[in-house]
């Protein structure tokens, strides 16, 4: 361990393997040095911008193709009318947004959308539902959708809310590759945003997913009026999951009229970039996804996010209910930046 000039205690070494065995040795002495203290993450976020990006680039280049970006396409398989009260979400029944409720899509609709996503170059297809959690009868359709998406040769991901015992296993048997369930923010700020389910509920679902042998996709939202410390708190929670998630979506709040968070003061875009860098440094092997909010983000900010270690995006002109850059625009951006899809 070394103390850098900036005051950050440096646990990384040029070799990740060395860090792993170093941590193992320390752990065998009874201390869990793999845990990220929130103050250490805050210290990362406080670094001079260039120092932070340099560190993120070093980690990124050690573990990933520096110009490779993975493409995931989203679809909402059941839209609106959700009983939860997530303050950012246009699909919560209690807020008056212009999202129209829509029943569950058919398997045929999903297959057609997945085939189109594959033809555009996506490698993963993510199916989202506006539920607190799936009912048993919903699981039958979801399982069919997962099987159908896998049969097309795509990776399959679902985000269906909280899971009950046995449901993760059903998804795993259907061949599900990833389950997305976000922690959203730090435990301390969480209660300002959501009251109908608590942090522990989320951790519990993540544990069920992990135990079933499905890859974990878990991240959060930035730009909800949270402090830098809260952003550090979110990254710390994610990085301290054991193991940390394989996929970490960092969403920028998409402000939707009618939701409580509409009108939140805009976040300095460089704070968003810093959060991506902190995710990259603390979760070296994870795919860090530059997620919601790209349509509203200048290309130069997106370029900084890739520089900071983002290596996955949502691809296709729609997220769940809000817009995303058109595929053609992203292809042009990739050309401009010399990026390629992986
Ligand atoms: N209903 C399920 C749940 O909440 O677990 C799955 C779908 S939910 C829409 C998936 C994630 O989308 C949320 O956890 C949140 O992180 C993200 N999200 C929703 N609305 C958003 C918005 N307006 N801006 C950014 N991210 C958003
Ligand atoms: C995630 O972290 N972001 C995606 C996905 N997982 C499900 C959702 C973003 C939703 C943005 C608002 C909307 O389109 O409704
Ligand atoms: Fe419902 Fe998910 Fe939206 Fe929360 S984020 S209101 S659980 S759809």
UniProtKB/TrEMBL annotation:
- Residues reported in the UniProt entry to bind [2Fe-2S] cluster: 126, 157, 217, 289
Pathway it belongs to? Cofactor biosynthesis; biotin biosynthesis; biotin from 7,8-diaminononanoate: step 2/2
Reactions the enzyme catalyzes: (4R,5S)-dethiobiotin + (sulfur carrier)-SH + 2 reduced [2Fe-2S]-[ferredoxin] + 2 S-adenosyl-L-methionine = (sulfur carrier)-H + biotin + 2 5'-deoxyadenosine + 2 L-methionine + 2 oxidized [2Fe-2S]-[ferredoxin]
Q: Coiled coil: which residue ranges? A: none
Chain segments carrying region Disordered: 1-21
GO molecular function terms attached to this record:
2 iron, 2 sulfur cluster binding; 4 iron, 4 sulfur cluster binding; biotin synthase activity; iron ion binding
The record's section on SUPFAM superfamilies has:
Radical SAM enzymes
Q: Which Gene3D superfamilies match?
A: Aldolase class I
Q: Some GO term, biological process aspect, for this entry: which one?
A: biotin biosynthetic process
Q: How is the cofactor bound?
A: Binds 1 [4Fe-4S] cluster. The cluster is coordinated with 3 cysteines and an exchangeable S-adenosyl-L-methionine.
Q: Which segment of the chain is annotated as a signal peptide?
A: none
Which parts of the sequence belong to the Radical SAM core domain? 67-294
> What are the protein's UniProt keywords?
2Fe-2S, 4Fe-4S, Biotin biosynthesis, Iron, Iron-sulfur, Metal-binding, S-adenosyl-L-methionine, Transferase
Residues involved in [4Fe-4S] cluster binding: 82, 86, 89
Documented EC number(s) = 2.8.1.6
Query: Which Pfam families does the record match to this protein?
Result: BATS, Radical_SAM
Q: Which InterPro entries match?
A: Aldolase_TIM, BATS_dom, Biotin_synth/BioAB, Biotin_synthase, Elp3/MiaA/NifB-like_rSAM, rSAM, rSAM_sf
UniProt subunit comment: Homodimer.
State the family it belongs to.
Belongs to the radical SAM superfamily. Biotin synthase family.
State the name under which the record lists this protein.
Biotin synthase
Source species: Nitrosospira multiformis
